[in-house]
Amino acid sequence: xxxxxxxxxxxxxxxxxxxxxxxxxxxxxxxxxxxxxxxxxxxxxxxxxxxxxxxxxxxxxxxxxxxxxxxxxxxxxxxxxxxxxxxxxxxxxxxxxxxxxxxxxxxxxxxxxxxxxxxxxxxxxxxxxxxxxxxxxxxxxxxxxxxxxxxxxxxxxxxxxxxxxxxxxxxxxxxxxxxxxxxxxxxxxxxxxxxxxxxxxxxxxxxxxxxxxxxxxxxxxxxxxxxxxxxxxxxxxxxxxxxxxxxxxxxxxxxxxxxxxxxxxxxxxxxxxxxxxxxx
Length: 280
Prior knowledge:
The termini are far apart. The protein has 280 residues and is an alpha/beta fold. The chain has twelve helices and eight strands. It has helices at residues 17-29, 43-49, 66-72, 86-93, 112-119, 151-162, 175-183, 185-202, 207-227, 232-239, 245-255, 258-277, and strands at residues 10-13, 36-40, 55-59, 76-79, 102-105, 124-129, 139-145, 165-169.
């Protein structure tokens, strides 16, 4: 088996929850041997990342030029600040970018066109949508390429996100739709765990036991799905004995039109993504 190649030098500007999750994947992979530089506004947040192997962590309150220094240090620059802050940040770091650098957006709702307009048409821009399981190496990340991205640069970005989980190539027009499934999906999962825990408590179980039952049932089911070569519908049928208790419970969920509910929920998320793209 071929050994994975080392990644180019990387900067994560605004290493908050998502940037920090990606950083954890990078460090765990041991592929970031050319260095990772990260920035945060506060010294406290920067200090929390400073001990990671191969990571230079910069606090902007101590080093106001930290963003430009990070950008100048890297061949791949991840932009992880809040969407409203992206234009000002791009104008700040643009003069510092290395020739041939690739700028990667992890900011929800900000288009490739916005990046290219500020950075210039010749700058390689990739838009991404990772999700929070990146911190345990189980992310799903959608990536879409801008007009100036070569195959080699796109593959380098793919390799970066592959350190955190699965990677899907999509046209930019599908990024917002992807975000309603995999981007927001962990919240849907946690909500199901939360509500099943409440159902267990209502049936007389202690809180700790209720949490254990609900959480481990979902964790175990996910592990079974991952290890299996059959689809979820078949796995569901294997649990659902004819005229049994599970069949009765599943019927209640189906009668409540869970399919329509999930469709409506993801439609609402998509509508909000489009609002964010217009600055609403």
